[in-house]
Specification:
alpha/beta; Rossmann fold; SIR2/SIRT2 'Small Domain'; 2 domains; 6-stranded parallel sheet; 3-stranded antiparallel sheet; 9 strands; elongated; disordered N terminus; binds zinc ion
Length: about 300
């Protein structure tokens, strides 16, 4: 074994354990470091000192509000899953079908509400802002439940069900109309036997910018599309300044947390996961709180005894 290999091994070992120590003590620390803590009191200590908190949220948070994702077992709309409809190719081939799918998803959201996890995050942002501290939510969810709960500083990396983008002029606009256009009224039923609406392009949602009349599409990131570089720049800025990062309702081996959490952790910033189960990536983080985030998150983000609110 070369000197380089020995040195490298020692460096890795020290980085992993976080300190140089006697063999017995070192072993103990190693086993402790390898397992993230689920000690809420310890998390609360870190939380009380944090000035810039970044919260990365994923599908698990929406699932606890009963929002269908049309992915995985049983996740079908008619005979398709999201990855067959949420693509630029599917929209080019059959804009009527894709709009029926999104119209259905928008209408479903009328009956869905933020759950205790959404509410705890929004309440935490409101409270901490009065103390000169910041919270940012970086989400892959397109259902706007964070916004509905009152979250202000929100980066929707996958866009929103309630925004449209013109395929002609590129204009992006908020759109909460129900139905989004007369031709889609009563359409979009999810049952496999439903007859397709086959709506002509001129009757699908159209751009309202002066003289444009272009076909609108949902302002969401589809499979095979890249994330908006402006949103990504914002995300990078927030991850660079955060001094505590929470990963909620998504595992850290799954996108988007897989892209962001390891870079935060590599800076030595504490990362806390709140999700159903541990994954191999979990061991790289300071904390892991298993279980439904609607149960685990509210006590984690509640007012700390040291917080002074004027
Ligand atoms: Zn337009």
């Amino acid at each position: 074994m070369s000197l380089f290999q020995l040195t490298a091994r020692r460096l890795v070992s020290q980085a992993y354990c976080g300190l140089k120590a006697a063999a017995s003590k070192k072993q103990k620390v190693c086993s402790e470091m390898a397992r993230p803590s689920s000690n809420m009191a310890d998390f609360r200590e870190v939380f009380a000192k944090a000035k810039h908190i970044a919260i990365i949220t994923g599908a698990g948070v929406s699932a606890e509000s009963g929002v269908p994702t049309f992915r995985g077992a049983g996740g079908f709309w008619r005979k398709w899953q999201a990855q067959e409809l949420a693509t630029p190719e599917a929209f080019a081939r059959n804009p009527s079908r894709v709009w029926e799918f999104y119209h259905y998803r928008r209408e479903v959201m009328l009956s869905k509400h933020p759950n205790p996890a959404h509410i705890a995050i929004a309440e935490c942002e409101r409270r901490l802002s009065k103390q000169g501290r910041s919270v940012v939510v970086i989400t892959q969810n397109i259902d706007e439940l964070h916004r509905k709960a009152g979250t202000k500083h929100l980066l929707e990396i996958h866009g929103s069900l309630f925004k449209t983008r013109c395929t002609n002029c590129g204009n992006v606009a908020a759109n909460y109309k129900s139905p989004i256009c007369p031709a889609l009224a009563g359409k979009g039923a999810p049952d496999p036997e439903t007859e397709e609406a086959v709506i002509p392009v001129e009757d699908l949602p159209q751009c309202e910018e002066d003289g444009c009349n272009g076909l609108l599409r949902p302002h969401v990131v589809w499979f095979g599309e890249t994330l908006d570089p402006d949103v990504l720049t914002e995300v990078e800025k927030e991850l660079d300044i955060c001094d505590l990062c929470l990963v909620v309702g998504t595992s850290s081996v799954v996108y988007p947390a897989a892209m962001f959490a390891p870079q935060v952790s590599a800076r030595g910033v504490p990362v806390a996961e709140f999700n159903m189960e541990a994954t191999p990536a979990t061991n790289r983080f300071r904390f892991h709180f298993p279980g439904p985030c609607g149960t685990t998150l509210p006590p984690a983000l509640a007012r700390h005894q040291t917080e002074i609110i004027s």
